[in-house]
Amino acid sequence: MTSFPSKCIIDTNVPKTANLQIDPINIPDDLVECVQACLNAIDHVVNYGRLVIDCGDEIYNEYNNNLSLSGQKGIGNVFMKWVHDNRWKLKLVDRVNISKNGSSYNEFPEHPGLVKFDLSDRKFVAVANAHSDKPPILQATDSKWWGWRDALAEVGITVCFLCP
């Protein structure tokens, strides 16, 4: 993906994958382009784009549980710090409400192809679905999303796969 959307939702595996750049010698050959795509996506969002998250910190908390705020190296950790410092500065329209419904969310779309969708990733889809612009979700290395791409598209959710 060479161009990025003006606003998007970033799955946690994007900054986690970007963090691999702290040890470039040990990046597997098949992930070099993927790491670069994740770095580019984060750079774009931080400098030019708009991040879309939820008001209740579901996404923020997942970032915080998987990334570091303590100044550890890595662009993914820099992204975490940026989200921490800027989440309340994001445009109000880009901080959407989602509401838990058992292990899912009321805003998660109903579709037969999404019944077995990963419970821990439903927050990203719920946020996309609840936002008036239905911004795309940037996805890096979770191959399960590939199997759900058609069903997601049928309900108006776009997934941008950074690492084909």
Give a verbal description of the structure.
It is built from six helices and eight strands. By secondary structure, it is of the alpha/beta class. It has one domain (7-161): 3-Layer(aba) Sandwich (Rossmann fold), CATH 3.40.50. The chain is globular. Helix content is 38%, strand content 12%. It has helices at 13-18, 32-47, 58-66, 75-86, 122-130, 144-154; strands at residues 7-10, 50-51, 53-54, 95-96, 100-101, 104-105, 137-139, 159-161. The chain has a four-stranded parallel β-sheet, sandwiched between helices. Strands 3-4 form a two-stranded parallel sheet. A two-stranded antiparallel ribbon has the order 5-6. It starts with 6 loop residues before the first strand and ends with a strand.
Nutshell version of this structure?
With 164 residues, the protein is of the alpha/beta class. The chain has a single domain (7-161), classed as Rossmann fold.
Q: How many helices in DSSP terms?
A: 6
Distance between the termini: 9 Å
Helix % is 25-40%
Extended strand count: 8
CATH topology group: Rossmann fold
Q: Low-confidence segments, ≥5 residues, pLDDT <50?
A: none
CATH C-level: Alpha Beta
- How confident is the prediction overall: mean pLDDT? 92
CATH architecture: 3-Layer(aba) Sandwich
